[in-house]
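writing this on my phone so excuse typos. first protein, seq and then structure
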Amino acid sequence: MTDNSKISVIVPVYNAEEYLDQCIGSILRQTYHNLQIILIDDGSTDSSGDICDRYAQKDKRIEVYHTENGGSVVSRKLGLEKADGEYIGFVDADDYIEPDMFSELLQSILECGADFVHFGFIEEKDGEERIILNFEDAVADVCEISCKIAFLCDHFLNGGKNFIFPSIWSKLFRAELVKKCFASLPDEQQYGEDMLCLLRCILESRRISLKRKALYHYVVKERSLAHLEKNERILQEIGLWYHVANTIREYECLEIVKENATGFLRGRILQTVEYISRGQLHIPRYFLKNISQIRGKRIVIYGAGSVGQDYYSQICRYEDCDIVAWVDANRQKYHFEYAEVIGVEKMTELSFDMVIIAVKDSSLAKKIRGSLAEAGISAEKLYWQAPEEYF
């Protein structure tokens, strides 16, 4: 790559002293060096401001701005005002990035002349890592409104396959685009500002690049909104969707995507209800439609994710269905008080009539079917159908 465009990296900082060394250090270790690193100390009351100043003394690429606490939107707006790079990226102060992330992002955006490029990310939670890549490599030309609508329905208003996470980190934007789109956000929009900015970026773009790479480490923890009361959290979600709908309406395509938008809103409300109940309340989303085919059978459920959990709950209600075992290739991830999930390797020790493959994606189901067949399980016993959805 011969292009030496400057990338401005904006990091809002608020009381992040225990994470800053890892975060800033990961940016300084980038293999791409033409960076402007903008640290916005948003009125921190811990030592975050001093840490930022210390790093600025070590590297002339770092600029530190100390402000009164105004929230992440105000911090990012200040960062965008100070940014002079041709491209702009964002890193949260409690996350960190791989050394080649900005080099790879810039190469991807330049290869196809995109307005922004989206990568996946690595989710870190409770000491475990999970790579999030829910989409395929693609370059989407979205000049026409019909193409923008198709992209919205396939990648934004779709919580399943091809869904791109509605963050502004793990992406690189053409500077003029993200400055224009972020400026439209009200300063007080402290919930879902990433989603609103990304939505407008999609609607304003001419070309978007998606790359199946994960170089951003998103560290999950009890973040600033976790303290909200239950009712307030739901109201925040509804308020966010009000802004989403208004933005889509502004581009005169709300009526066209209304069904997709309504479905996505329902899904987010359900996730919010489950989150604020801290796992004590599970709302089923999926069900097995042709239940008559499994009645009177000895059943193994393969898959302990959201589909498998809903299938287990559904099938347990039928006295003439005998669940012999619940298995998953990553059984160590799942711990339920009401049932044990065992490893796939133990299936050869079981006696059963059928295996219900409890996954949503058909290609994954095909892969599982193939691996079970190779393990000697009769293909006649393997059953998969696309899960039906309540909502």
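second protein below, same order as before
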Amino acid sequence: MKQPFDYEIIYSSRRTLAIQVTHDGRVTVRSPKGCSRSYIDAFVSRNESWILKCLSRAKELKKQQEHSAAAAPPPLSKKDRARYMELARDIFTRKTDYYARIMNLSYGRITIREQKTRWGSCSSKGNLNFNWRLILAPEEVLDYVVVHELAHRREMNHSQAFYAVVESILPDYRQARKWLRDNGQSLWEMI
């Protein structure tokens, strides 16, 4: 009886028959050297439903990978990344200057970075770092991150006092913080 799939037989000095289905949908039967083709065929027939299940899973996985590869944007060129970082520098410089005046705070240098794990930071010297990918987020999220980092100039922690400073400037800051938690990862997938 013909199986609904092709398979390759690899003979070796092993003692038992074994079937392997690879993630790219190839079926291999590993067999002892003296095993007859009819015996191998019968073994494959007995395991047909399991093999078909594995092939179906492999096909589904391949489809998902192709879909996610098609959905993923092409990697950024150095030139494009530099352009986005320059744009981010301009935006964050203006926003930081604006909020620092309102909050009556000073700050040091502004650095634009691309860090997988941080949106912003404030050093003990008052230097601020911002992730350029934030410019892809809604405006209120940028404002929140700027105010958050500037608030560290008063409170170098995440205490109630710290969040009171943030809230005095942005009463709705929780919405922006929630957006960043829920959607931050998408900023890596946009461009």
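Helices lie at 37-46, 48-71, 78-103, 139-151, 160-169, 173-183, 187-190. thats all i got for now
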